[in-house]
Amino acid sequence: MPINANVAKLTATAVKLARLANPDNNSNEAERDAATLKLAEHCSKHGLNVADIIALSQQPDAPAKRAPKPDAAKPTTDATPEPEAAKPSKPHAADAKRAEAHDEREALVAKLRATCAKLYNGPSLAVRSNPKRVAASVYADLLTAPKHRTTLQRVSERDESFLYTVIGNGGAGATFDPVNLNLDAGIFSRLASIAFIEAAPASAKLPYRLTKAGLAHANTSAKRAA
User: Fold this and answer.
1) Confidence of residue 189 (pLDDT cuts 50, 70, 90)
2) Dist. CA 207–CA 202, nearest whole Å
3) pLDDT tens digits, residue range 94-110?
4) DSSP the chain
5) How far apart are CA 50 and CA 11, in angstroms?
6) Mutual orientation of helices 136-144 and 29-46 as an angle, nearest 10°?
7) pLDDT in tens, 119-152
8) Domain spans of the chain?
9) Residue 98 near residue 49 (C-beta atoms within 8 A)
10) Which residues pair with 176 in a beta bridge?
11) Which of 98, 136, 150, 216 has the fewest CB atoms within 10 Å, measured from its CB?
12) Starting from the edge strand earliest in sequence, which strands make up the sheet with 208-210, in order?
């Protein structure tokens, strides 16, 4: 299959997923969340830009073109036409932009992992090594119903490295976005279970913030990394 036809097919699949994930369609929340996760995985796997795909999904489909009428039969000749020389392909600006964004994402993840390693540098750091983002809905569900739990007496250095990363790389008022910071969802769940994390107010630019207790524990832990 030609390269451009393959890209068109991959793009069409991504557009379908983006439309399924759109809140305006008739699917339920679970179906939209599943479509959102599949869209992110599909775009990451095939080097597609999610924002571009969402923009395409909001445009009406182009009307189908009618098949051209066949030309009248022409007399055959013995001469064999020479094949046209292949035109050199030009680098696609969108591909270059995606590659640049991926490199920037990997650099950010490396920086964040170095930060949390100041408090905990064992297996499974609080910042995931895989630059592919976890869906925002995963963290939202864990805040409401934590699947991994702990107690105040069992907060680990790994948990504290999560808090340390948040206060060093989050926003004002201890707000943060776990998707952008590539934070481990299991630790997010553990800290949510002991009320160290809460939803940020509507006026905040980021979706979550550390509670008063969570921030106090984070500041105490940060002293060990100083």
Assistant:
1) very high
2) 8
3) 788 888 888 899 999 99
4) --HHHHHHHHHHHHHHHHHHH-TTSSS-HHHHHHHHHHHHHHHHHHT--HHHHHHHHTSPPPPPPPPPPPPPP----SPPPPPPPPPPPPPPHHHHHHHHHHHHHHHHHHHHHHHHTTT--SSS-SB-SS-SPPPHHHHHHHHHS-SS---GGG--HHHHHHHHHHHHHS-GGGEE-TTTTTB-HHHHHHHHHTTSEEEPPTTSSSSEEE-HHHHHHHHHHHHHH-
5) 10
6) 140
7) 999 999 999 999 999 999 999 999 999 999 999 9
8) 3-57, 99-225
9) yes
10) 208
11) 216
12) 175-176, 208-210, 197-199
Report whether 187 contacts 159 (CB < 8 A). Answer: yes
Please, which residues have CB within 8 angstroms of residue 18's CB and are 6 or more apart in sequence?
35, 39, 53, 54, 56, 57
Question: Rounded to two decimals, what is the model's pTM?
Answer: 0.58
Compute the distance between CA of residue 113 and CA of residue 123 in angstroms, rounded to an integer: 12
Token pair, residue 157, equals 């250095």
Place of tokens 């002991």: 194
Task: Name the token pair of 59.
Answer: 């445009």
Q: Which residue, chain included where needed, has tokens 């769940």?
A: 189
For residue 148, the one-letter residue type is H
